[in-house]
Amino acid sequence: MTPGRTEALAWTIVGAPFALLVGNLLAGTYDVSPWRIAVQESGLWALRWTTVTLMVSPFVALTGMRAVEPSRRALGLGSALYGFVHLWFWMRQYAFDWPFLFDEIVRVFLLLGLAATLLMTPLAATSNDFSRRRLGMDRWRRLHLLIYPAAAAAWFHYSLSIRLDRRELYVHAACLLVAFGQRLYREFAPRR
Fold it and tell me: Under a CB-based contact definition with an 8 Å cutoff, are residues 189 and 68 in contact?
């Protein structure tokens, strides 16, 4: 499969849950608290795609299947977009009542979610080839290390949320630890 096709397939897979979510919202499938469900679903998918994005490198290192590498950009952008949509759905859930939202955002788990979203913003903005050339690969790579604190903040945001499946939380924790560990190994392992 060519890199372009791999990326197109990744975009299709990333977009499918969003299309389903929007379809259910428009169809009125979520009778009780539709915005709360939209907040939960978009947040879960933001964390899922962030985790999958970070697992690309360990997967390639383990299997040697470099054909999946072109999907990383779509997966990373998808995770950022789901994060932005998650924030928008949360604000919409409370009818954009700005005084209420500003009072609420000081809660620790909401601050962590906001931090994760804000950390993803420069990553999404610089995920294009122009930014790579403009910044230079070294600076671009250093900037994109923000994915790690963003993922950690998103995981803690998720872990402090109520009414969510704890088993999925532990799967994300294990995957993120593998991804962080592999990154540290790549950074500090002696070069051969």
Answer: no
